[in-house]
Amino acid sequence: MNIQPLYTKVLMSQVLVHQNAVYLAGRFADAIPAENDLDIQAGNTLAAIEQVLAEAGSDKTRLLSATIYLKDIQADVEQMDRIWGQWLPEGVVPVRAALEAERVQPDVLVEIAMVAAL
C-alpha cells in the first residue's frame, strides 16, 4: 500500500495520495479578509485547492467528491452554489454535500474538503 502524505502536521496530513486518488483535508482561505466576504473567502479557498491539486498531480477536472462546510448555511448556500458553479469546469459534476459547521475561528465562513482522481 503506497500512501504519500503531503503537508503533514503532527496529527494529520493536508493531502494524501493513495492509488489513483488525491484526498484533501478541509481547506479554508489562507488569509481571512476582515470584512467576512464569502466571495473572497471561497475564491481564495478554491484557488488554494487548485494549487494543492496541481502539486499532487491532479486538477479540478478530475474531482470525484466535495464537502462544503458553511458557517451559516441558510444565509450562504445560494451564494456558495453560484461561486461553486462558476468555479467548476463545464461538464464536471462531482458528488457534493453542503453542511453547516460552526468553527472555533469566528471569521471562517467556508471550508471545503475534496477527493480527486489522479
Automatic annotation (TrEMBL):
Transmembrane segments: none annotated. Pfam families: Ribonuc_L-PSP. InterPro entries: RutC-like_sf (IPR035959), YjgF/YER057c/UK114 (IPR006175), YoaB-like (IPR035709). Gene3D superfamilies: RutC-like. It comes from the Bacteria. SUPFAM superfamilies: YjgF-like. This is RidA family protein.
